[in-house]
Design goal:
Layout: E1 8-14, E2 18-25, E3 32-39, H1 42-53, E4 59-64, H2 71-78, E5 82-86, H3 102-115, H4 126-158, H5 171-179, H6 185-215, H7 222-228, H8 236-246, H9 255-261, E6 266-268, E7 277-280, H10 286-296, H11 307-313, H12 318-340, H13 345-370
Parallel strand pairs: 1-4, 4-5
Antiparallel strand pairs: 1-2, 2-3, 6-7
């Protein structure tokens, strides 16, 4: 007898303080029912699942990926229970359904799990998730610093104060800011608080980037970080961000899968003979997408292996460096071709970033399938790109 025909499917709608549980019995006509709501702690979940386990049927448990992370998955997997975390985007929703409750969500998860219509997400290891949290903390600090700078410049602009120098936030610009004195003390306090926030955020970024350098030598994905630095524009911070967010490149069967995962493929609304493609979907991993777009700006310059790139490529496999050089040739040509067609530069960068993700995929797969163990000392790099 097929084991799936005697399996019980359990849908969990997980929140911080509550979990709704629904079950779907195997078979097309198997009963689907809501069992109730329990507390959001693991002890309450164990108690509820023990009653289901006592029935003697193997359980297949699913819940949506969300802010509660993978704690439940790790807890249940340690007990030998089959559990999957599913992507919310893979859950089909009827256009006319305007009612959403925890009860209905749990029932829907159980029913779709039985039908095999859900896509499970990859659950990272505890160490990989810890590094990703560190990388995202740095990204948050960068965002806070950028927002603080915008607020400060807006305050000065409202008061008719402009900087005559060439570049903002250089040492000269910071010295100029230190000399400013606004007309009213209330404004001066607001200005000084903005400046302090920027200084604190800048210091936090430096601390987090140093922490990333410190954790890299012991990270199992260090070879991937080193290999991605063979690409132009990808130095330590950019490489660690991409690896922390993507991690397993083997799970993407082809580069188009990775392009879709980071939301760099165009949206489409086609009907009949008409095909309409719009802006990129921006689905999936936004942190990796932003980093790829930032790196793509470097490919507007002519292909060249600079001394810095050559240093990063030392001791790397020839297959990896060949891919990196091919990326320079292809992406720069694409950049120039798009600009010659008078495509907006920002659109050209996004198109280049989409193809760049394909070269990232090629290097990632080459490293992870070859078993290359990396070099002992990571290349010395200290900027984003």
């Amino acid at each position: 007898m097929d084991k799936s025909s005697t399996r019980m499917y359990v849908g969990l709608d997980v929140h911080k303080d509550s979990i709704d549980i629904a079950v779907a019995e195997a078979g097309r006509d198997g009963e689907v029912r809501h069992l109730g709501s329990i507390g959001g702690d693991l002890a309450a979940l164990d108690k509820a699942l023990r009653k289901l386990v006592s029935r003697g049927l193997p359980l297949h448990i699913v819940y949506e990926a969300g802010p509660c992370g993978f704690v439940i998955w790790r807890h249940l997997s340690a007990q030998g229970l089959a559990c999957e975390v599913v992507a919310p985007s893979s859950i089909p929703k009827r256009s006319g359904d305007r009612v959403k409750t925890d009860r209905r969500d749990a029932i829907l998860l159980a029913r779709l799990a039985r039908a095999g219509e859900l896509s499970a997400v990859r659950v990272p290891g505890a160490t990989d998730e810890a590094v990703r949290d560190l990388v995202r903390a740095r990204e948050d600090a960068v965002r806070e610093c950028r927002n603080g700078r915008h607020r400060l410049k807006a305050l000065l602009l409202r008061n008719g104060i402009t900087y005559a120098g060439k570049s903002a936030w250089t040492a000269a610009h910071l010295r100029w800011l230190a000399t400013l004195k606004l007309a009213h003390s209330a404004q001066q306090i607001g200005f000084q608080e903005y400046l302090h926030a920027i200084t604190e955020a800048t210091s936090r970024i430096a601390r987090l980037e140093q922490a990333m350098r410190d954790v890299l030598p012991e990270w199992s994905l260090r070879p991937l970080v080193q290999a991605l630095q063979s690409l132009r524009g990808v130095q330590l911070i950019a490489a660690m961000t991409l690896v922390a967010e993507l991690q397993d490149f083997v799970r993407f069967a082809n580069p188009r899968k990775l392009m879709a995962y980071v939301g760099l493929v165009p949206g489409e609304h086609s009907s009949g003979p008409k095909r309409r493609q719009g802006s990129i979907t921006k689905a999936g991993n936004s942190a990796a997408r932003r980093m790829l777009v930032e790196v793509a700006w470097h490919y507007q310059h002519g292909p060249r292996v600079t001394p810095i790139i050559a240093t990063r490529q030392e001791h790397l496999p020839k297959e990896v460096t060949d891919i990196a050089w091919k990326a320079q040739l292809r992406l720069n040509a694409k950049f120039r071709r798009l600009l010659a067609r008078r495509v907006m530069k920002t659109k050209a960068v996004v198109a280049v970033a989409r193809e760049l993700s394909g070269f990232v995929w090629a290097i990632g797969r080459a490293v992870q399938t070859s078993g290359w163990q990396g070099v002992k000392a990571a290349p010395s790099t200290d900027t984003v790109a």
